[in-house]
Write a structure and sequence with these properties.
The complex is a heterodimer of chains A (201) and B (227). Chain A is α+β, with helices and mostly antiparallel strands. Chain A contains six helices and ten strands. In chain A, helix 2 links the parallel strand 1 and strand 2. Classes of the chains: A alpha+beta (201), B alpha+beta (227).
């Protein structure tokens, strides 16, 4: 959940992080702008742990400027409308929440996107120069930008996460059938671990 | 010279230890793999990750471990990962370090060590358990894992309700100086239900403050995290 301190922290870091993408001020009704936001949302949905798309922060590549949204712009970013718009582009779906974050008298929209819960999210409808039907958008490691899966590294990450999510669900079902066997640590092992970290403890 | 660890210990802090049940000093052969395991296991469900793996700052390597420390704004923390599969995190309570923060500066009534944020604590325990689950996967640990947490500097600290929640009628104050919780889990349990496993420690911690909270109330706060 992004609050004012989290937003301040994200801006103070001075650059986009893998889990945060900034978009300048704009209205959801501007189609080209919305398409860029949707692309960022799709990328976050395919990233481990998801991420946040913040609308109202200008990023010229060097400096982040917390410009904020006008009341008119802010009013266009309601959850229901945005849900409907994102559903038009996302397959199967994106789980997200929308919050207004106020910071130093300015308002921002934080779209908090959860990681996919079943299978990776694909783009099901194109938009000129921004979205391609059938594309898999990801957040690139290191460079922190949203783009079509650029290499085997990102593709492998998405595939492995999907497999892990599925495996963890199955383990959850198995766990309901009965408790797993837990091996208690032997005293000697416990002491060895404690001894290893004794300068810290 | 005062180290970052000395600094962390001057105020309230978490000590988290996660390790397998069997001691094998070279469970992970290469430090590079160990670093990658920390990076892959880090949990980023909100603004700041656990542990914070900072790409921009160097990690310090020794023959048997890799470590990193951070001292930035109100984040004062240290982690170390051993080739044995042991992971240790020692991290200051965020709200205790507002006096060195420009982005969350102290308010007039702020005093270090005065409060423990409920939401922040519940989130942190989830992160610890989720990290343990991912750690077991990254290192392909087949034996069980010990997850041990200690919270120090609690005496006279008062629970603080999360944003948008009703404050307590009376102060829920801790008289103990520290709280600890340690249990052993199978990797399957951790992977299957990390968030559920994070509930009993939270309930037990808040009890020490005199707050008898239900597991459902903890779940409700957990849902505010992504994922």
């Amino acid at each position: 959940m992004m609050g004012p301190n989290d937003l301040r922290l994200a801006i103070a870091l001075g650059r986009e992080q893998r889990g945060t993408e900034f978009k300048g001020p704009g209205e959801k009704t501007e189609k080209a702008f919305l398409a860029k936001v949707v692309r960022a949302v799709l990328g976050m949905a395919n990233k481990p742990d998801g991420g946040t798309v913040v609308v109202g922060v200008d990023d010229d590549g060097l400096v982040l400027t917390a410009t904020g949204l006008t009341p008119g712009q802010l009013a266009t970013w309601g959850y229901d409308d945005l849900h409907s718009s994102i559903s038009n582009y996302a397959d199967p779906y994106v789980d997200f929440d929308v919050r207004v974050v106020s910071l130093d008298g300015k308002d921002f929209v934080a779209i908090e996107v959860s990681e996919f819960s079943e299978i990776p999210v694909l783009c099901k409808k194109g938009y000129p120069q921004t979205l391609r039907q059938g594309a898999l958008y990801v957040r690139r490691r290191g460079k922190n930008e949203t783009l079509e899966v650029p290499s085997h590294v990102e593709m492998r990450e998405v595939i492995e996460r999907a497999a892990e999510i599925r495996a963890r669900k199955l383990l959850g079902i198995v766990a309901q059938l009965g408790p797993a066997t837990v091996e208690q640590p032997q005293l000697a092992a416990d002491e060895m671990f404690a001894n290893e970290a004794k300068d810290l403890l | 010279m005062r180290t970052l660890l000395d600094k962390v210990r001057t105020r309230g802090h978490w000590i988290v230890r996660i390790h397998p049940t069997l001691y094998r000093p070279d469970r992970v052969a290469r430090l590079e793999d160990l670093e990658q395991a920390v990076r892959d296991s880090a949990v980023a469900l909100r603004g700041w990750d656990f542990p914070h793996y900072d790409l921009g700052e160097p990690r310090k390597r020794s023959a048997g471990y890799v470590e990193q420390s951070v001292d930035w704004e109100y984040c004062v923390e240290f982690w170390r990962a051993y080739k044995s599969g042991q992971f240790v995190s020692i991290a200051g309570l965020l709200e205790d370090w507002r006096d060195q923060s420009t982005i969350w500066p102290p308010s007039q009534d702020w005093r270090s060590g005065a409060t423990l944020g409920i939401q922040e604590t519940i989130f942190r325990i989830v992160e610890i358990y989720e990290f343990a689950a991912r750690w077991s996967r990254s290192l392909e640990i087949e034996d069980s894992l010990v997850v041990a947490c200690t919270l120090r500097g609690l005496q006279n600290r008062t629970l603080k309700a999360g944003p948008g929640r009703r404050p307590f009628f009376g102060a829920q104050t801790c008289s103990a100086s520290e709280w600890s919780h340690s249990l052993t889990y199978s990797p399957a349990e951790l992977l299957a239900q990390a968030r559920e496993l994070a509930i009993p420690p939270a309930v037990a911690l808040f009890e020490v403050f005199g707050w008898n909270v239900s597991p459902d109330a903890i779940r409700e706060v957990q849902r505010e995290l992504r994922g």
